[in-house]
Amino acid sequence: MTTKVKKHLDYLKLLTSTHVKQRRELIKTISNEQLSVLTEAIFNVLKGVCSLSNVNKNRLCKNKSSLRKLVDPKLSRKFKKTILKQIQNLIPELLRPVIRYFSRDGKGSDNGSTREIHKIDGNLREEIAKSE
User: Fold this and answer.
1) What is the 3-state secondary structure (H, E, C) of 99-125?
2) What string of DSSP letters covers 64-85?
3) Nearest residue to 72 via CA among 57, 87, 83
4) What is the pTM of this model?
């Protein structure tokens, strides 16, 4: 995932820095690869690879079912876009830790830790189901 995220890091930064109307338009025109990177980034935040503050955790807790659906690899692109439109105000809170994680030293480390970045694939479906 690190090469994909690095390739689309500017897009993720753009999503975090834009206003609501612009973010809505970016979500409408999101490509398959950008959607894949975005869902993998959110998945890694949910798995705890990129650390969140307690305040952000509490805010995201209210939408945990939507976030889990968003990272489910079985769901269609159209459905994921619908979920993204619903939670578009949370996108900056979700992506800032990921951007920080990949911007620190360019290698993808957070505070010197060597946590592994997870990629969503068929093997992780069971982990997602267990976390629900």
Assistant:
1) HHHHHCCCCCCCCCCCCCCCCCCHHHH
2) HHHHHHHT-TTS-HHHHHHHHH
3) 83
4) 0.74
Cα distance between residue 90 and residue 94, in whole Å? 6
**Nearby residues of 7 by Cβ (< 8 Å), 6 or more positions away:** 37
Using CA atoms, how far apart are residues 120 and 62, in angstroms rounded to an integer? 23
DSSP state of 30: -
Q: Which residues of 32-63 are buried (b: 16+ CB within 10 A; e: fewer)?
A: eebbbbbbbbbbbbbbebbebeeebeeebeeb
Q: What is the mean pLDDT of residues 73-94?
A: 91
Q: Which of 117, 100, 96 is nearest to 48 (CA)?
A: 117
pLDDT digits (tens, 9 = 90+) for 43-70: 888 888 888 888 888 888 888 899 999 9
